[in-house]
TrEMBL record:
Family annotation (SUPFAM superfamilies): Multidrug resistance efflux transporter EmrE (SSF103481)
GO BP, one annotated term: lipid A biosynthetic process
Organism: Marinomonas spartinae
Name of protein: Putative 4-amino-4-deoxy-L-arabinose-phosphoundecaprenol flippase subunit ArnF
Membrane-topology annotation of the record: Multi-pass membrane protein
Length: 133
């Protein structure tokens, strides 16, 4: 059962990581080496974009924690079952991006999300009498 909690934690952390990365990168300008040399300097860049950089940093931290949870889950759950569960994060990110960032959400996307969830349910389904992971 702890392995399933590890998968759920990994999914939630990778979802949070995506949202933090989107939030952080949305506040960042397109930067090139030429821009840094001509228009600004590294210190000024850090100061003016600190909030965005913090979001990116915490997004990367969530990715790292997600990886740790994922490795714990793989100790007990077969990869052929665990890996499809990652697609749940596609659904979570899509729905949360609509809510948090006002990204468009169409009926096609909603139907696709339902199909993803049905597919994961079928893959992880264990008939009565089968040993749990």
């Amino acid at each position: 059962m702890r392995s399933w909690f590890a998968i759920i934690a990994s999914l939630l952390l990778v979802t949070l990581a995506q949202l933090l990365m989107k939030s952080g990168m949305s506040g960042m300008p397109v930067v090139s080496l030429n821009w840094l040399m001509v228009e600004g300097n590294g210190i000024a860049f850090l100061q003016s974009h600190l909030s965005s950089l913090i979001h990116v940093f915490f997004g990367l931290m969530c990715y790292g924690l997600s990886l740790g949870c994922w490795m714990l889950a793989l100790k007990k759950i077969p990869l052929s079952v665990a890996y499809p569960c990652l697609s749940i994060s596609y659904v979570l990110v899509t729905l949360l991006a609509h809510w948090v960032f006002a990204e468009p959400l169409s009926w096609v996307v909603l139907v696709g999300s339902v199909l993803i969830m049905l597919g994961v349910s079928l893959i992880t389904y264990k008939p009565a009498g089968h040993r749990a992971h």
